[in-house]
Amino acid sequence: MFSDSVSGSVSAKALRRAGWGVIAVVAAGSASMVAGAQGWYATGTAGVVSQSDQTLSYSRPGVAGVTSPTLPLDTGFLAGGSFGRYFGDRWRVEAEFAYQSVDHPVFTLATGGPSGDGNYASTSIAVNALREFDLLGSSRARTYAGVGAVYLTEVDVDFENAGVERSFSGSGTGFHALLGARYSLGERAFIDAGVRYLLASNVDLDGEAGTVGRITADYEPLAVTVSFGWRF
């Protein structure tokens, strides 16, 4: 969770610039390599997600100042998939889509504002660059590390009370880091276990369907994932 102070904002911007810089360097290096024998692949992914409690900066027309309550967040799930290609024997670049959501308990955003339980969720697309390492001493298993540039096509937080849902949504950009291991089940099939952390700072979420106001918040889920994949 990041504060709204100047130092926090500068730190978040620096992290974003660093993440995009690493992506550019890694992607450029990968593109210059000749594709190896492993070729193309696709994966389907599922996972468990958690997220630290987040400060929501809530403003409304006609109300002076900004209310900044802390939204308690629980666990949730991730589902998605990717399509990628190996470049050489160690590098791979992939495009992915993901949906992830964590729940929150009954919560009042501000006096006279939305109240209820709900979730904090997103849909995203990303381009990831990853490097594999032979750390497990097995020809079938490889560990990997990578980074990805993420576009959050929608971030949404909602509050449901007595069957009425009031929600805020927006979009944003960020980056994520990925660590894991991939195990070959045969010539084409493989399984993958990993951990990923996504950071998008100061995402603006506007009220929708009659909900008034705007929320500005960070979005930073941590997920443990399992994937099944197929090489082409």
What does this structure look like?
By secondary structure, the chain is mainly β. The protein has a single domain (6-231), classed as Porin (Beta Barrel). It has 1 helix and 13 strands; from the N terminus they run H-E-E-E-E-E-E-E-E-E-E-E-E-E. The protein has one helix at 6-31; strands at residues 40-50, 54-55, 57-60, 63-67, 70-71, 75-87, 91-108, 115-133, 141-161, 164-184, 189-208, 214-219, 222-231. The chain has an 8-stranded antiparallel barrel with strand order 1-6-7-8-9-10-11-13. A hairpin with a 4-residue loop joins strand 10 (164-184) and strand 11. It is elongated, with a radius of gyration of 20 Å. Residues 1-12 and 24-36 have low confidence and may be disordered.
How do the helices and strands line up, and which of them pair or pack?
Layout: H1 6-31, E1 40-50, E2 54-55, E3 57-60, E4 63-67, E5 70-71, E6 75-87, E7 91-108, E8 115-133, E9 141-161, E10 164-184, E11 189-208, E12 214-219, E13 222-231
Antiparallel strand pairs: 1-6, 1-13, 2-5, 3-4, 3-12, 6-7, 7-8, 8-9, 9-10, 10-11, 11-12, 11-13
